[in-house]
Amino acid sequence: SNKSLLLGIPFANINRHRALDIVTKTLDQRSSSNLFFINAHCLNTAYSNSEYKKALQKASIVLPDGSGVSYACKILGGHLTENLNGTDLFPYLCTLFSKKNKSIYLLGAKPGTVDQLEALIKLQFPALKVVGTQHGYFPPSETNKIIDQINHSGADVLLVALGVPKQEIWISQHQHKLSTTLNIAVGGLFDFYAK
Ligand code: UDP
């Protein structure tokens, strides 16, 4: 099977090509999917945070990010097919979303950072529609207003950069109110690209 298990967290032990295939399929589904990434720090966090653990267990796709996961697989007598972190996958996802004519909404990071990323995407992927941005330092009282804005934007894909485990818990908690098809937790990705 291409499902592996680490500390009770199932993840897809597959290569990039197959991962992009699965993402493509989720875009055509009526129900929404969550895509999360796990590294060694995530596994540690999940061990003591049951809400985060549950969010990971319920996700449609969990991909392995980093050498810690690879090492853990080896210790357990297994083998990691490919390290599939969000940062490396991002350009492929942008290409895929623009080919499929799917729009994206960027939620998270500092105000300047999320705006810089929007500008960078417009430059590097002109065919990809960024239909909205919102920085990640809003009070909980604004959550419903932000969800309304995301839904109003018509975004197909929501990228959430609020850090682990806040972002996975946030997505999981609000998935039923979001009209997006795919929600992706991306951690420090906005900071990485917005330079
Ligand atoms: N962040 C945010 N709101 C918060 C906490 C964090 O928008 O309340 C952002 C932060 O600015 C950064 C990202 O979430 O862009 C988390 O980055 P980090 O590298 O800490 O992520 P991790 O790899 O721990 O998930």
UniProtKB/TrEMBL annotation:
Domain of life according to the entry: Bacteria
Family recorded in the similarity comment: Belongs to the bacterial sugar transferase family.
Name by which UniProt lists this protein: WecB/TagA/CpsF family glycosyltransferase
Organism: Zooshikella ganghwensis
Parent-protein residues present: 12 to 206 of 490
